[in-house]
Amino acid sequence: MQVTFKDVTLSYDGKREILKHLNFVIQEGTLVCLLGPSGGGKSTTLNLISGLLAPTAGHIFFGDKDVTKEDALARKVGMVFQNYALYPHLSVQKNIEFPLKMAGLSRGDRAKKAKELAALVHVDDQLDKKPGELSGGQQQRVAIARALAKEPSILLLDEPLSNLDARLRIEMREEIRRIQRETGVTTVFVTHDQDEAMHISDKIMVLHDGHIQQYSTPTTLYADPENLFVAQFIGEPVINSVPASALSHDLAGVVPADILSQAQTAGIRPEALTLPQRALNPLTTLHGKVVEFDQFGRESTAKLDYNNLQLISTEMGQLSHDTKELDFTLEKKGFFLFDANGKRIFGGDDHAE
Amino acid sequence: MKKVASVLRYLILTLGAIIMILPFFWMLSTSLKTQPETIQLPPVWIPKSLQWGNYVEAFKAAPFGRYFVNSVIVTVVTTIGQLFTSILAAFAFSKLRFWGRNLLFMIFLGTMMIPGEMLIIPNFVTLSNMHLVNTYGALILPWLASFFTVFTLRQTFNSVSDQTYYAAKIDGASDWKFLWHILVPMSKSTITAVTVLQVIGSWNSFMWPLIVTNDENMRTLPVGLQAFTTDAGTNFALLMAASTFVIIPMVVVYIFLQKYIIAGISNSGLKG
């Protein structure tokens, strides 16, 4: 089901607006992540989609239908909560059957459907157990099966992986992606983990301060951040952000003067600082000192000192560790300039605007 | 040192156990004594010959069959009624959002500070205006709501996360269905505990049934025990024999359900 928000505003107390004039469309059959720091409005947006919350102003559409005034049941959403919210006194099978029981399906139909779903999420050998006897990952699977039981118009997941350990998170996010592809259900996934969002989404909506900072594919989000917040929030290691003035000498003649004069902050992805012999599309050459090398498994980072500013690069692995001073290349790809409001004015896809 | 502490601990616990058991032992022992033995000094701990006949005589002394039926009716109806109203109220206080919820809860909480004895006269006046004295109505009506039960259940319902409530709503459950399909089964141990406490309280209740009934046919078991106290004095042997068969059902209930009682009281943070 396609979900459309038109000018949706939410305020709990009538004074402070939690969400401000939200406009977006979630395409049918896609998996969209709502990403952002805590308190940014992700879960609130999810609850507005679910119908557990009603907007103060604006309209919400499922397909062509205005569902603003409808509750969660009428909207036919399926939801998975952070703590799974399984019913502890019911077996796995009865948990999955519960929405079907409420919908008035016969016992036989319920059992058949529950078994199908259990097989889909790979818990078909746990049907008689109580949730308390299952591991976190298995509980998660049961919660997804229960949410899918009534063939929801849309599947909502509220930080579903945050209670799992690191390895299981990766396994489960792949599972969620698989299940979403197999069922084709439109899915909205809330997370504060950019890595998670980058891996499973068709599109990511970055929410901060009640606004949509950017809503695009993971690749675009990384390569063409629309503002400084997105550039800093997405990417690991974090983008180098330095005052643009520190680079103005080296950028003169490379970046148009009118842009350079407006620029407040420069954002440099760690992979945009590379050795001259490996450069692909160099913007300019900088000179600096190596402060420190760090090796993490197959990844390595170098801390560089440029004009007394510290920059991190991930492309200096080949450099001998006793290197002190060097020339290094600033690549065009992965270099951005932002104005005083944080809006991107240089770098990325220049044709985007 | 550790050993001394351990011995001391057991000594105190043993003493406590003896203090708890002593009245019951005294009741059983007295119920099997002859009349003179009951008031003999120094006290007789074990009767010389066991007077089993006391039980037969005690049972015949008053219509205990009728009293038993009355006690069962009053206990069952008050317990079920009180549980029903308390579950609904506790659900409202725990999961529904309505204007004045906290204020109302505080007012109800305040009523717990009024001693029960103070309510006897107003309740009696009300019920006699309703012409309910000497009926089951009088025995049952005042006990159909209990804020203690509401409070205990609310604490338990609060421990069920709001996410579970929302999950059930999304699954298509109305408030009513969520309450009976999810919340009540999840709170089984506390509900069992308050049920048992209510059954025992109701079964043993003495003052209220004594006041609102004077018809022989409407009396409950504890009130019926008065039959052994006359102007000429009290027949302790028969009284204790009758007391024994009056409390036996409750002892059985307690023995089978004690783990729920303990769990329920420790959950609510209240001492019964």
Question: What can you see in these coordinates?
Answer:
Chain B: Belongs to the binding-protein-dependent transport system permease family. Chain B: Keywords: Cell membrane, Membrane, Transmembrane, Transmembrane helix, Transport. Chain A is of the alpha+beta class and 353 residues long. Chain A has 2 domains: 230 residues, 3-Layer(aba) Sandwich (Rossmann fold); 109 residues, RNA polymerase II/Efflux pump adaptor protein, barrel-sandwich hybrid domain (OB fold (Dihydrolipoamide Acetyltransferase, E2P)), CATH 2.40.50. In chain A, 29% of the residues lie in helices and 31% in strands. Chain A is built from 11 helices and 19 strands. Chain A has a 6-stranded mixed β-sheet, with helices on both faces. In chain A, strands 13-17-14-15-16 form a 5-stranded antiparallel β-sheet. A 4-stranded antiparallel β-sheet of chain A has the order 2-1-4-5, with helices on one face. In chain A, strand 18 and strand 19 form a beta hairpin. Chain A is elongated and about 75 Å long. The model of chain A has no long low-confidence stretch (mean pLDDT 89). With 272 residues, chain B is an all-alpha fold. Chain B has one domain: MetI-like fold (Orthogonal Bundle). In chain B, strands 1-2 form a two-stranded antiparallel ribbon. In chain B, helix 4 runs antiparallel to helix 11. Chain B is globular and about 70 Å long. Chain B starts with a helix and ends with a helix. In chain B, 32% of the residues are buried. The mean pLDDT of chain B is 88. The chains are: A alpha+beta (353), B mainly alpha (272). At the A-B interface, strand 6 and helix 3 of A face helix 9 and helix 10 of B.
